[in-house]
Amino acid sequence: MAAPYANDHLNPNGPNDARPTALKIIRDEGLDGKLTGKVFLITGCTSGVGVEIARAIHATGADVYITGRQADKGKEVVDGILADGKPGKVAYLDMSLDSITSVKKAAANFLELSNTLNVLICNAGIALAPQGTTQDGHETHFGVNYVAHFALFHELRDTLLASATPEFSSRVVTMSSMVHAVTTFLFDDYNLERMPYEPYAAYGSSKTATLWMANEIERRYGSKGLHATSVHPGAVLTEKISAQMGGSDGSMQNPALGLYMKSIAQGAATPVWAAIGKEWETKGGRYLAEVSEEGPLRGSESDVIRLGYAPHAYDEDGEKRLWELGLKLIGAQH
């Protein structure tokens, strides 16, 4: 299995240690300024990992479209990325992932601006939120993390397929998490209406769903030049996480976890590798973390960080069933 930065991950030492950043991935792949004319769409880019993904992708010279819910923040991000002087355009699209109508409108707006889409990165999401529902009535984690991104992919699928060439396959990257291991997808109660609400179960079920989404995209469209992978970005030290953990490096409450924490730029490395790495030019359907393809779940339940894929991560029947459910929920036939 591909693991080009395995040595850099052997002894994690907190944010900004030896583990690679997204920009390092771009440069190591030899793609600095080399993707002029290619088009990327990245969700959730007004803060956190999404900003660094967009910044790294723009360094290739590609056109980058970012989504968010706050136009003022979106403009700040656009201006900040354009400061790198690369030729590609950067544009902001307003999109609220708690509304399928908003997602479809954003997709239509994108298609008015570009008839090409080479890579879709489904970065946006929520984690461990209080119990709630989206505007469409879905449990919040399921609706935002999976249903909205499935709807977005469905709206852009034909453009992704049409943009694929023998020299440059199209790709979809979905954001999963190591928390997918907590539970398989909860088909019997995916809106968590019957069982007691538990944020980790809600989040884990949604992240199994995004993992399965990538697997099923690969199964259906890999032979047509459209590949998909799912990604665990790592334990990333955002401002919100820092506040929850009680310190700038997470060490005040859990020193061991603090060692595994990544900077935001490091957290963007695996998604960027999935999006542009030569390793994934002609294949997909794999779960990635630490800039490597993951093997089976390792370690014990008592470990602070437990990497690898759970036994339910590759479930062809479940993936097909979820796909059909997704179509039903967004009002599509195929």
TrEMBL record:
Question: What domain of life does the native source organism fall in?
Answer: Eukaryota
**What residue ranges are annotated as transmembrane?**
none
Please give the Pfam families that the UniProt record associates with this protein: adh_short
One example GO MF annotation: oxidoreductase activity
Q: Which UniProt keywords apply?
A: Oxidoreductase
Q: Which Gene3D superfamilies match?
A: NAD(P)-binding Rossmann-like Domain
What InterPro entries does the record point to?
NAD(P)-bd_dom_sf, SDR_fam
Can you tell me which family this protein belongs to? Answer: Belongs to the short-chain dehydrogenases/reductases (SDR) family.
The protein's name is Oxidoreductase
Which species? Fusarium floridanum
